Amino acid sequence: MKIFPHLAAALAAFGLYCSPACAQQHSDAIRLNQVGFYPAAPKVAVIAADAGGGFEVKEAKSGKTVLKGTLGEMRTSPHSGKHTRLADFSALRKPGTYVVEIAGLGKSAAFTIGDRVHRDVAEAALKGFYYQRASIDLPEKYAGKWARPAGHPDDKVLVHASAVSEGRPENAVISSPRGWYDAGDYNKYIVNSGITMGTLLSLYEDYPLFFEDFNTNIPESNNGVPDLLDEVAWNLRWMLTMQDPADGGVYHKLTNPRFDGMVMPDAAKNPRYVVQKGTAATLDLVAVMAQASRVFKNFDNKFPGLADSCITAAVKGWQWAEKHPAVMYNQEAMNKEFDPDVATGTYGDRSVKDEWIWAACEMYATTGKPEYVKNIDLELQQPMALPTWSQVKTLGYYTLLRFAEAVKLPAGQSDGLRRNVLSYADGLLTNHETQPYNTVMGKSAQDYAWGSSSVAANQGIALLYAFRLSKDRKYLHAALGNLDYLLGRNATGYCFLTGFGSKRVMHPHHRLSIADGIVEPVPGLLSGGPNPGQQDKCAGYPNKFADESFTDNDCSYASNEIAINWNAPMVYLAAALEATMK
Ligand code: 9MR
Ligand code: 9MR
């Protein structure tokens, strides 16, 4: 139907016509989880405008008012100085579809109250990994309109001059297929795969039953293995090929010398290399393989021999690391010595103490042999640190807590671990209810690092561990608050998971989404989120405030890229909350 703008406006005013844009005609100043709320959970919207007085919650369809409330005290953002107020409608528990309305401001977008309200989010975020798969075509049956031919077969990868070893001279050809593309780029990095796999495998170990019935419509669905583990296996098999069989050391990454252009995977034909072995990559692989061998042992009939290959790889990697306890990946130094120069993501680290701790904890939990932790300072006297790709020791702590009884961890150590997690969580909770968005996320300016969305998600995971240790729901509710943050209750107003929300991320820095010619980006991918570093120098940032330094622009790799290590905690948070709120 062709309809003239004036007529459309007139009809819309009487509720008779809704253009595609009309779905957007809600107040951007009313910020809330754009997906929805569990009936029994806290529910808040944040009003980012000078408003006072009351608010109403109405049924979206009938317009009937179901709850009236008063806006809370004025709050101030420590980052921008801007003011907000809360509309707390937790008392509303009846499942349905609603809007929040403020006189003078208008309505929020419609949202749902219901059970399993984040089920789709959790499934989509896991499915996001399927879309990132290298070396396989994605047929329409599984990928819908994002179907695409295979790219990066990686069956003829060159050994870089920095990575030669016995039997593998410079330019030797090896096969290293499968795995997930790291992010908006098409390279595959062991370090970043490490934390990603650790997070997904821990999700499985923490909530195994939940994944018995969790279908993401991938080629392996219904093969008797949880889809989560089928997806993990795709990357696991790639990681195994990244270990040098000669000595057990692990290549830092599989990469082009320079980033591919903004093309589809099958059009990217640049040569790819495995580069320099290092201790961080090797220990990250050790940790992943140790954990994977534990998990896949229970699926030996479906993946014959996989668990064995994993533990063998872990032991070999450990032995290499003992001989090379601190070989750092330094790309600049490498480029001075070897050709071709490599200009892709570095994932370089200054310390591998935390990688040692993580690997040791996983080896201990899998083998039960205390010698793996005997000569390692577990740093239990130090405060806990949120996991990031460069700081992984807490992944080891989570595992030790999970297996404290099984490995008969000395009481002193398990108490120390418990105290560490709880005091970290308590630190997160301090004053969070006075924050502009009533979230743990964003209390500290440092939360807005490159990939800040993963900070929010990882804080949520830490809070869930605290909840499981204490059974105190204040931690659970704060974890939910961070999910609310990711899905729209934040200073940008965006829902950061592609494919969801009323204010969507449409232009992530993601080669697949840029090159495929489809309007909607690949769904289920978590945008990096606000990052005042603005390293991409992209036009479009609204300002320099930490909590608003985001632009939904595909040039913005510093605020709007996607990455596997950000998606993994998103999957964890959403799935774990679904499992818990049942
Ligand atoms: O596309 C690259 C992205 O995946 C990285 O995170 C980012 C930072 O390393 O770099 C992007 O590539 C850009 C490069 O660094 C500079 N020239 C433009 C490239 C594409 O925007
Ligand atoms: O997530 C990484 C971030 O912590 C770094 O500050 C940044 C710059 O080195 O790189 C990020 O990782 C990128 C990687 O280097 C290449 N693939 C895309 C990753 C996400 O932007």
What attributes does this structure have?
six-stranded mixed beta sheet, 16 helices, 10% strand, 15 strands, five-stranded mixed beta sheet, alpha+beta, 582 residues, single chain, Glycosyltransferase, binds ligand 9MR
Short description:
The chain is 35% helix and 10% strand. The chain is an alpha+beta fold.
Walk me through what this model shows.
There is one protein chain. The protein is an alpha+beta fold and 582 residues long. It has a domain at 133-350: Glycosyltransferase. It is 35% helix and 10% strand. It is built from 16 helices and 15 strands. The chain has helices at residues 5-13, 119-131, 140-143, 190-206, 227-241, 279-296, 306-323, 331-337, 353-367, 371-374, 393-402, 411-429, 452-470, 473-486, 511-515, 564-581, and strands at 30-31, 36-37, 44-47, 54-59, 65-70, 75-76, 83-88, 96-102, 106-107, 111-113, 157-159, 173-174, 188-189, 251-255, 273-277. Strands 2, 4, 5, 8, 9 and 10 form a six-stranded mixed beta sheet that branches. Strands 12-11-15-14-13 form a five-stranded mixed beta sheet. Strand 8 (96-102) and strand 9 (106-107) form a beta hairpin. The chain is globular, with a radius of gyration of 24 Å. The two termini are 44 Å apart. Residues 183-185, 259, 345, 557, 561 line the site of one ligand 9MR.
